[in-house]
Specification:
This protein has about 140 residues and is an all-alpha fold. It is about 70% helix and about 0% strand. The longest helix is centred in the C-terminal third of the chain and has 14 residues, at about 105-120. The chain is globular and about 40 Å long.
Length: about 140
């Protein structure tokens, strides 16, 4: 069971700065599972764009997408939109494209609905990335 107390979140945030990719990846998974990720969005964004190891990117993105909510999808889209490292950008795209839940009829409809909502996001990077993804699905 995850520890979503203030101390548990502080520990996960501290883990995001670890020199160990395993600890950073674990921090990304823990923070992505928090009931409200808005308060740790900046830390999740850093982990999604981890310049040292794409395993951190992959684990954090997979955990955010596993939420199956617009907040998790939004975080991954925001990172994909600004990823300057090719390996990181490719890893984020792979997580978005390869989540098996999106391949089913119901899951595909869920993704299309969430992307449709995010095409009106206040962040232009999220809006543009959602539009790109949506156009590829149609």
């Amino acid at each position: 069971m995850e520890d979503f107390t203030e101390r548990g979140l502080r520990d996960a945030i501290a883990g995001a700065d670890s020199p160990s990719w395993r600890i950073r990846a674990a921090a990304g998974r823990r923070l992505a599972a928090a009931p409200r990720i808005e308060g740790v969005a900046d830390v999740l964004h850093r982990l999604l764009l981890d310049a040292q190891d794409t395993a951190v990117t992959s684990d954090t993105a997979a955990a955010l997408l596993a939420r199956r909510d617009p907040a998790g999808l939004r975080a991954v889209l925001a990172a994909r939109a600004v990823a300057s490292d090719e390996g990181t950008a490719d890893q984020l795209a792979a997580e978005l494209d390869c989540d098996p839940r999106w391949a089913t009829g119901e899951g595909g409809a869920e993704l299309i609905t969430q992307l449709g909502t995010l095409t009106s996001d206040t962040d232009p990077d999220v809006r543009d990335e959602a539009r790109r993804r949506l156009s590829r699905l149609r």
